[in-house]
Amino acid sequence: MYGFEEQIWFDARGRKIAGNFNSFGRGQTKADFEALMAHLDPELNGPVPDGYEAPSYKADREAEYRQAHAHFAARLAQAVPATNDEETR
User: I want to staple 35 with a disulfide (CB 3.0 to 4.6 A). Which of 30, 49, 67, 74 is the partner?
Assistant: First the structure.
């Protein structure tokens, strides 16, 4: 799974562009990913793929999962009062 996500990008509107055909975004072709790589290459500086909007950002699922965990852990801590260990003995 990590290999699939290593080649996943999102455009400014959140449209997914993936390198692996099993992970393609809606309506994406192989040429779209190749065009994105050309666009991101500073030497080629190709155009943004048709139908996509710059800037693009790379997916970082590990950071997203950490952020989600922190968010929901904080919500859980607010919803469930802390217990005193001495009270439960």
Answer: 49
The rounded distance, in Å, linking the Cα atoms of 19 and 52 is 15
Show Cβ contacts of residue 20 under 8 Å, excluding neighbours closer than 6 positions.
3, 4, 7
Contact 21, 8 (CB under 8 A): no
Residue 89 has pLDDT above 60, yes or no: no
Residue found by looking up tokens 């048709």 in the block = 50
pLDDT band at 6 (very low <50, low <70, confident <90, very high): confident
Q: Which candidate, 59, 41, 69, 40, places its Cα nearest to that of 2?
A: 59
**Which residues is 16 bridged to in the sheet?**
10
**Coil, strand or helix: which one is 7?**
coil
pLDDT of residue 83: 66
